[in-house]
Amino acid sequence: MSSSRINRRNFLRNATLGTVGAGIATTGSLTAANNPVPGPASIKEYRKFGKTGFRVSDISCGAPSNEAVLRACLKSGINLIDTGEVYMNGNSERMIGRAIQDYDRSKLFINTKLYTETSFPSKKEVIERTNQALERLQTDYVDCMQIHSAENSAILKDEAFHDGMEQLKKEGKVRHLGVSCHGNNWAYNTDENLEKILMTAIDDGRFDVILLAYNFVNAGMAEEILEACEKKGIATMIMKSNPVHIFGLLDSRMEKMEEQGKEADDFMQAYYDKYRLMNEQAKTFFSDYGIKDDAEIKKAASRYVLSNPKAHTTLWDFQSFNDVEEMLALSGQKLESRDKLVLNAYNKHLGHTACRIGCNDCEAACPENIPVNKILRYNYYFSVKKQEKRAMTKYAKLSMNKPSEACIDCVGYCEKACKYGVWTRPLLASARHNLELIV
Ligand code: SF4
Ligand code: SF4
Questions:
Q1: Which ligand number lies closest to the CA of residue 400?
Q2: Average pLDDT value for residue range 373-397
Q3: Nearest to residue 402, comparing CAs of 358, 434, 354, 356?
């Protein structure tokens, strides 16, 4: 194991030492989780979280999937956990429920979500589903209940949701309302996109917390939303802070196919040259700027988001103890001059490789009704977040059209419509290979 890596035993030992010094809460000696002793694997900065009355760690836990890693995060001073009823079929909430029993609940901010594609069937169902979430979380209340991945503005006004939440707030079971968004489901209204949906939520006045994708490639769109949140005192949670595409995944798959004497299908063949060109451009960029690996840009990308005080907390899907060590080392850090140089250059030379997620112009332009934004997002889960199973399951469940032969003969309306110049077709070809696991 390299010296930069940390094993579970060492991490737990370090985390425990940090915990003793920090006085971070375990039942019986409850103190604020907001005061960890400075150390490499502990939170260094807490921020005012809108008007919720909470101060949250600048880095927080998004959709935890490993209980031991989650416990390490809590011990290190992370005090916000994000989850949702659909994550791991409720097991993410169950895992959090077990882990938080050892902590002072009042020092933790728990955010969960209810999802619907179109509208919530009834107030009764909203209340029942919230009560079930509370049972799984083993808590009397959630700090925030969000509408999960709002796909249009209409859902923000959903009467069943708001009536249910009004009652749950009175009962003390829900403290704040929030909304997360990945952009529009174009099938309902092609005029909408992430910006329009979230601006509607901000203007609505009933939502205290907004969860959005923010990174150095979508800054133009996201920073307007963050600014609007700041003006209204709305708390912000950030997801997808690292937009850096993993280059080369497809190359190795294609090489394997070649070794096996298989040929890529026509769709892939049609765009493979362009895909390879992106890989070559990435290699040149990495070498020209002396960048060792993706991890280096990932750190710069994280510092970009952490530097913006309007981005209150950045969610991270900690998959391992190593992730915890690496990410918590970034807590309290700000953008460095080399980061600025590298990220600006990345935008200039490789901006066409990263979908900004949420602007939706590509989808509205597609004559085949292919949800380009959504598929590129699933490919992001697969190739950047390494959540292969989750990405493939979502793709398999997609009831809309998928990239197909139609794309081969198409002049590329989606690419033409994208104001960021994203090379959607080779990315869609790669997404299809990844998400259908074509080998
Ligand atoms: S491909 Fe372009 S238009 Fe489509 S969602 Fe991504 S950035 Fe927006
Ligand atoms: S290439 Fe054409 S058919 Fe395929 S997603 Fe883009 S616009 Fe739609």
A1: 2
A2: 88
A3: 434
Query: Which atom in ligand 2 lies closest to the alpha carbon of residue 372?
Result: 5
Confidence of residue 327 (pLDDT cuts 50, 70, 90): very high
Q: What's the pLDDT score for residue 17?
A: 37
The residue whose two tokens read 């009467």 is 159
Count, residues in the chain: 439
At residue 234 the predicted structure's pLDDT band, cuts being 50, 70 and 90, is very high
Ligand with an atom nearest the CA of residue 425: 2
| Rounded (10°) CA dihedral 125, 174, 215, 363 | 20
Q: What is the dihedral of CA 192, 198, 199, 202, to 10 degrees?
A: 150
CA distance 54 to 411: 51
Query: Average pLDDT of the chain?
Result: 86
Task: Report residues whose beta carbon is within 6 angstroms of any ligand 1 atom.
Answer: 355-357, 359-362, 372-373, 376, 418, 420, 422, 424
Q: How far is the CA of 357 from the centre of ligand 1 (A)?
A: 6
Statement: residue 397 has pLDDT above 70: yes
Q: For ligand 2, is residue 412 a contact (CB within 6 Å)?
A: yes
Position 438 scores a pLDDT of 63
Instruction: Assign 26 a pLDDT band (cuts: 50, 70, 90).
Output: very low
Whose C-alpha lies nearest to ligand 2, atom 6? 414
CA of 180 to the centre of ligand 1 (A): 18
Whether 297 and 216 have beta carbons less than 8 Å apart is answered as no
Place of tokens 């280096």: 296
pLDDT tens, residue by residue, 55-105: 999 999 998 889 999 999 999 999 999 999 999 999 999 999 999 998 999
Give the ligand at the shortest distance from the Cα of 423: 1
C-alpha 336 to ligand 2 mean position (Å): 39
Distance 305 CA to ligand 1 centre (A): 20
Domains of the chain (ranges, CATH numbers)? 8-243+295-328 (3.20.20.100), 249-293+338-435 (no CATH)
Mean of the pLDDT values across residues 245-261? 72
**How much distance in Å is there from the Cα of 127 to the middle of ligand 1?**
36
Ligand 2 near 414 CB (within 6 A): yes
